[in-house]
Design brief:
By secondary structure, the protein is α+β, with helices and mostly antiparallel strands. It contains eight helices and seven strands, in the order αααααβαββαββαββ. The strands form two sheets. Strands 2-4-5-7-6 form a five-stranded mixed β-sheet, with helices on one face. The longest helix has 85 residues.
Length: 376
């Protein structure tokens, strides 16, 4: 996975600091010369080369004198705000004073004028303003760069955090799929063993037609089981179709002793649930509620919804009380269902098993509604 670009600082501010400083230094003092030319030389009608040359010289002096300020400000950068203000104020006064002194001296020498020292204050105050602007720009650019670096660092941390979360989610998904696969594979051998025993009994009693029908139904049911992924959610309609394949096998075993009714509400046919979830419930009902009864029994499968959940009940007519004493001890099938529901829905599910007053047991599953999206 490629990490997104997190460098939010413009390329100029990522250049070498010394190079960046000198580019800004030359650009700033050059702009001062241009402004001085238009505001002084042209305004006061001083087009002579000496006056223009003085503009260039004072900018060169400004470059030379402001250069050490960079090291002064870097030296006190980590000090407290009050200390920095004191040092910056002193530095601005000293260097602006020196700049005023030198540029006034050069002005008198280059233009041949004299007697200007009495007006030194008039030269000093603009110099202080210039060096204050220089100081403000220096700190502004430095703060901008630091803020950009901090923002980039935060984005890098966020990107790394998202990448780690993505990896964790993928690992969790793989672990979940592996757990579901393990649980699903517990069912197939269990069911297959019971069915092959029934086929063996049919062959042993020379009921070959019934054995052939059971093998055919078994192949169709196993096709559904094997071609459905372990973690896949299927519609109620598909799951009921698989249950009907399974019940075809059981009807061959029990004949008229097994009566099945299936009711599926129209509004839940497209609801989702984990594949092969109902087969252990139906198998358990037949095993404990029909097979142990001398006269057989009935099996009802009802699928419906309440306000928020899909509900499926598997109800058998029940066997003699003595045959149903083991109801409180769920076998591999029910334990498997509970584990699969826990993996898929965490705590938002119900798996109940109730003995009915009139006889029999109702096994109920209740899971959140999750309708399959259809593409027209």
């Amino acid at each position: 996975m490629n990490q997104p670009s997190v460098n939010s600082v413009p390329a100029f501010f990522r250049e070498d600091r010394l190079t960046r400083f000198w580019v800004l230094q030359l650009a700033g003092w050059t702009c001062l010369s241009i402004v001085s030319y238009f505001s002084l030389n042209l305004w006061y009608d001083q087009p002579d080369a000496a006056y223009i040359g003085h503009n260039v010289v004072q900018s060169l002096l400004g470059i030379a004198l402001s250069w050490p300020l960079r090291y002064v400000y870097r030296r006190v950068w980590d000090d407290s705000l009050i200390v920095r203000i004191v040092y910056i104020s002193i530095a601005v006064l000293i260097f602006s004073g020196l700049w005023s002194l030198f540029r006034l001296a050069f002005f008198q020498w280059m233009t041949g004028t004299s007697g200007l020292w009495a007006d030194f204050g008039g030269w000093l105050f603009p110099s202080i303003f210039i060096f204050m602007c220089w100081t403000a720009l220096y700190h502004g650019f430095k703060y901008y760069r630091l803020v950009g670096q901090e923002h980039s660092a935060l984005l890098q941390m966020e990107s790394a955090k998202n990448l780690e979360a993505s990896r964790a989610a993928r690992a969790e998904t793989l672990a979940r799929d592996a757990q579901l696969a393990m649980l699903r594979y517990q069912l197939n051998p269990h069911f297959l063993f019971n069915t092959l025993n029934a086929v063996q009994s049919l062959v042993a009693t020379r009921r070959n037609a019934h054995a052939t029908g059971m093998i055919s139904a078994l192949s169709e049911f196993l096709r559904y089981s094997l071609y459905t992924n372990s973690g896949e959610f299927v519609s109620v309609e598909d799951e009921i179709a698989a249950i009907k394949l399974y019940l075809e096998i059981e009807k061959i075993r029990f004949g008229d002793r097994l009566v099945v009714t299936i009711n599926v509400s129209q509004d839940v046919r497209s609801q989702q649930l984990p594949s092969m979830l109902l087969q252990p419930l139906v198998e358990n009902a037949i095993k404990y509620g029909v097979a142990r009864s001398a006269k057989g029994g009935t099996l009802h499968v009802d699928a419906y919804s309440d306000a928020t959940h899909l509900c499926i009940d598997v109800v058998d007519s029940g066997a003699e009380m003595k045959a149903r004493e083991a109801i409180g001890e769920p076998g591999v099938g029910l334990s498997n269902i509970r584990q699969r529901l826990e993996v898929c829905y965490s705590q938002d599910y119900d798996l109940t098993l109730h003995r009915l007053p009139e006889g029999g047991v109702r096994a109920g599953v209740r899971v959140p509604l999750q309708r399959i999206e259809t593409v027209n």
